[in-house]
Every structure is written in structure tokens, then in C-alpha cells.
Amino acid sequence: MSTQPDIHLYTASTMNGWKPLIFLEEAEVEYNLTPIDFSKKDQKSEWYMKLNPNGRIPTIVDLSNDNFVVFESGAILWYLAEKYGKFLPKEEKSRSQALQWLMFQMGGVGPMMGQAMYFQRIAEPQGHHEEFSIKRYVQESRRLLEVLDKQLEGKTYLLGDEFSIADIATYPWARSYYWAKVSVDGLENLQAWFECIDNRPRTQRALEIPKPFPAFFGKGDVATAESANADRFKTDVKS
């Protein structure tokens, strides 16, 4: 008798979209995957928005828990960590620290770097050069990376020696500093952390799913990728 995996994941190749993929690959958990095609506006379709009313990715459905739906990437990581007992400390204070750094990514690193990317990689190629906005988000992104660098002093991972959901959440964003045009010069602890996670085969496999986007990391044909990315999101701002 065949059984299906508990988790059905709906996602795309973005920094937030890779988070549950990294968890599931690292935890060696089987899952079913439905890629979300932004060019077809899958994330705004009626069927998808019944799962995720915000019309964003990622979303999971836990088939083993009455088809329970979880959206928002940080909430998904927390749910998966508790379900599988992976990448989340059991000790109370350490568990709180994991949540704090997860929220630091969700409330700071992601939004700030995301805006730095938007104004430089999407708005600017369409003729909207907003110098004040670019400076604001690039400088704030750099400040947040400096906070990470300080936290990583003397540590392998954000919480110490153990890989956690805080690392899973933060890595795809921080590692995409090239796409945000934010310098990591002088941030030696951060760069060592990048190298450490760069060498985790399962995390790197996750970054190839649903399809790779090497331009985020300064690899491949960046110009073509930038043009395609700008075109993909050109209708985001309504006139």
C-alpha cells in the first residue's frame, strides 16, 4: 500500500520560498511539491488564495493533521521544527533565542534587503531610480548584516554549534547580498558562516528547487536574470 508524504509544499525560487525547502531537505523529510509560477500569477489564483489569503509563497499543507494549512515562511519553519523535532533547541532559553533570531530575519533582514533588491533590481531597470530609497535600504541592510556578524563571533551558527531554523531563515536572504548590492566587506564572521552553509550539500540542493536562480548569489547571467525578474514584477505597482 502506497503512502503519500505528510507535507505538501507550494513554493517558488525566492529567498522566502527556499526556507521550507532547506528545512525539508536538511531534515530528510519526504514532501510533495507544487511550484508556483509567478508569470502565471498562480499565487493570486482562487484555488491558492483559499490556502493563503495573502497571495504569497510559501504555503504548506500537513495532510497528516487534518490538512492543516500554514503560511508565512517563519511560521512554516516553526511548525516544521516542532512537528519533526529538528533544528529547534529544547531548552527554554535557547528556544527563545531561536525565535528571537527568526523574528530578526522576518522583521528586519528580509524586509530591508527585499526593498534594497526591489528598488535596484526591479524599479531601476524600469526607469524608476529612487536614490533616497536605495540609500536608505542598502544602508539599513548593511547595518543588519553587521548585527549578524557580531552575533556570529566565536560561533559556527547563529545560536552556537547547532544549525537551527534561525540559520535556515536568514541564510537565503543574507547570502543574496550581491542581489541587494550590499557590501559584506569586513564582515569576516558572516563570511565564514556563508562558507559553512555553502558547504552543506542538502541546503545547496534545496536552492536548486523548484529551479535555480544563481543570479541572486552573483553567478551566471545576471543581466538576463535581472531583466526577467524586473519584467516578472512590473505589474506589482498599480497605476
UniProtKB/TrEMBL annotation:
It comes from the Bacteria. Gene3D superfamilies: 1.20.1050.10, Glutaredoxin. Residues 4-88 form the GST N-terminal domain. GO terms for molecular function: transferase activity. Keywords: Transferase. Residues 91-216 form the GST C-terminal domain. InterPro entries: Glutathione-S-Trfase_C-like (IPR010987), Glutathione-S-Trfase_C_sf (IPR036282), Glutathione_S-Trfase (IPR040079), Glutathione_S-Trfase_N (IPR004045), GST_C (IPR004046), Thioredoxin-like_sf (IPR036249). Belongs to the GST superfamily. This is Glutathione S-transferase-like. It comes from Trichodesmium erythraeum (strain IMS101).
